Amino acid sequence: MAAVRVEEVLAAAEEQEAEKRRSVTVEKELELEFDLGNLLALDRNPPPAAGLRGAGPRREALLRALARDNAQLLVARLWELPAERAGGAGGPLVARLPEPAFRLPREKPPPRPRPPTRWEQFARLKGIRRRKRTSLVWDEQAKEWRRRWGYRRAGGDPARAWLAEVPEGADPQEDQFARLRREKRERVARNELNRLRNLARAHRAGTGTAAPAAPLHPTGHQSREELGRVARVARVSTASLGRFQPRLPKEPAEPPSRSGGRKRRFEPLLGNLAAERSRQLELLRDMGSKRPVLDITRAVNKQLRQEEAEAAAAKGKKQSQRGKRGRRQQRAGRSAKKSGARRQQQQRPVGSGTGGGGGRRKKA
């Protein structure tokens, strides 16, 4: 009995040792293709078809074993890369990955390039290059470093200075402080107008399919419709789609949009696979079917719009005919009155008067 027990212990130890060796040693008929930059391993060995038939625990166990073997090969290749300690001798051991060789596809389309502004177009035409300047400059009056632009900038705001220089050739009686404040308001308004122009140009460039709207006139004489359109574009250009933007004193309330102020939502990368499979199968089924997909609601709305348009056209045609008939009757009445008056003048005797010779006589 003791000998049998010893043999069982030795056999169990050998099995454990073989299991350990099998866990780190994987043999494949065809070597895997590795892209260590993307941590990608491509296995071109055909899987056993008999084990993948049907759905059951045998199939799941086979897939788990195949995934474990491939992951083991990928980890073994990672250990062959040059490694170093991150953060000193006591830091974790990290490996330097090579450059990716396989180009992975994007889930979302690449962002469209931003259209250039008017100044960028002018600078490109004239060959003006942008020079990067520091944001801080030395202020001689305050004896400290201050911002070049904005609040508490170097030199201070000229409109708030206690002394203003009268320019040469200017009216000495003119209030220079009021002139500086007026010029500042004009600069702010001009910058805001340029910002709205750039937003409107970017919005027209982003639509693509719609016809481009007429640009704002550079002279500053914009119509009411143009300014309203640009203001609407500037309002919805914020992150909240203009929900918290203050309105102008006489600006009317805009109707709610069809989307309800909601942004586009994308499906997560790792989600419900069954729902994704059903969507893809439905799309393929619609593409493969020869019968077109009929949207009942859209078809009914289109028919109602056509009937309303035909009724409006018929009503307008009747009103136009009624107006023409009325104008003809008015012209006929005026012509009858004129002809009656002419007949009365022709039938009246010449020289007849009231009373005894009360007519007009010609002086001798």
Give the helix/strand class: mainly alpha
Percent in strands = 5-15%
Q: Give the ordered list of helices and strands.
A: HEEHEEHEEHHHH
Approximate helicity band = 40-55%
Order of strands across the widest beta sheet? 1-2
What is the strand tally? 6
Count of alpha and pi helical runs: 7
- Coarse morphology: flat
Question: Tell me about the biggest sheet?
Answer: 2 strands, antiparallel
Q: Which whole number gives the mean pLDDT? A: 76
Straight-line distance between termini: 178 Å
Q: Tell me the Rg in angstroms.
A: 44 Å
Keywords: Nucleus, Ribosome biogenesis
Family: Belongs to the RRS1 family.
Subcellular location: Nucleus
GO molecular function: 5S rRNA binding
SSE map:
Layout: H1 2-24, E1 33-35, E2 40-42, H2 57-79, E3 83-85, E4 93-95, H3 118-126, E5 136-139, E6 144-147, H4 176-207, H5 224-235, H6 273-288, H7 296-347
Antiparallel strand pairs: 1-2, 3-4, 5-6
Helix pairs in contact: 4-5
Short structural summary:
With 364 residues, the protein is mainly alpha-helical. The protein has helices spanning 2-24, 57-79, 118-126, 176-207, 224-235, 273-288, 296-347, and strands spanning 33-35, 40-42, 83-85, 93-95, 136-139, 144-147. The chain has a domain at 2-47 and 54-85.
